Here is the input.
Amino acid sequence: MIFKRTVYLDNAASSFPKPSEVTRKVSEMLKNNTANPGRSGHSLSEKAAEIIFNTRSEAADFFGIKGHEENVIFTFNATHAINTALRGLLSSGDRVIISDVEHNSVLRPLIDLKKSGVFTDIATVHHDDKETLRSFEKLIRPETRMIFVTHASNVSGQKLPISALGDLCERHGLLFGVDASQTAGHTSINITGDKISVLCAPGHKGLLSPQGTGLLVLSPIARLTVKPLLFGGTGSDSLSEYQPSLSPEALESGTLNTAGIAGLCEGIRYCKTHKYEIMRNINDIFTYVYDELSRLPYITLYSPKTDNAGLIAFSVGNLHSDDVTARLDADKICVRGGFHCSSLFHKKAGTTEKGLVRVSPGAFNNEKNAIDLLISIKRLKI
Amino acid sequence: MIKNKCITVKSQTYAQKAERILRENGLNAYVVRRTEGKSSGCERCVKVNADFLPRALALLKAGGVEMTGEVYDI
Here is the structure.
């Protein structure tokens, strides 16, 4: 071990640390109010409901649909949001187009949906956005209902041209779903402007919030009816044996993660206030590490330098990525190795044997962290 | 004595949205649970001054708040 303090550069998996506003709020809620939001009618329950509603307001505003609180649905994470969107919007006979860099949270539900008659086409992502768009457009058929893509690859960080894909969907009358797992919080996303029908995001990554929080945000223009994934108590229409149909309650059966959502509210507020500062910080560290790594002959980079959400994927000589991360961990450097839950990406990149190391700076990293990482990488015996 | 009306809405979120819209437009409004008449269970209402009911209803309609159509005295 050469460094005294842990250097955390795995923010693409889950951000750490969280802003003090977030940790304070979560702790305050757990200490002072764990009443069931809106269910019981007493003052603590109503206060909890107010926190939930305020979080919907903040999220709606943050993603460009200010005043449409009913279009913000809380989920446990992005995977939960993606499953709700895909299963709730697609039905037998529909086709969906995804990219060839999707996370398993998109691919696996769609593989399972084949049993229900929903079929998937996979478009190739190129380094040239125009070529990427062409690869999507040529897969559109009369049965195509939706294009669903990640905003940025969770391995390489390469951003997809979501505004242009939104235009493409609008021209062809398709739904447009976006997985913003690697971008929400530090990249501008405007549901209305980007013509997004449904946005899925985790709370615990770029939004700097607790694990166990996520968002499914529906476009108010699309006026979608999403079938629920879970059925049960919603705190409304309680005498009816049928699931209510109104969003967001219809898609939020069961008690919400109130403390987590209170933290999410603070996380979104923090991102709103510090967005450009966070973007600049991530970009500065990304550029510095990227340039330094590109000078090392035994490093092979798999991330583009431009149009990148701030992730650097690379291999080190012939070493297995898990061996590299273990050795960096011995120096108290936390980065991710392996296959990043993206079979599509690794098959495309030809890295299924040894995986890749991924470095992902976040809001609270600094230049010293980058220097420590590079010292540790240079100490590896290749 | 001030007379109040309760505007019944279809969900907790719409009740809170209604309260926000009315307050932003200078009307006093409070979320309450429905206690009158036939309810489908756990319905929410927004309490407003009866004198401002027509304006409140117009604001809520314009704001996209889903209402049940029922209004009762409180």
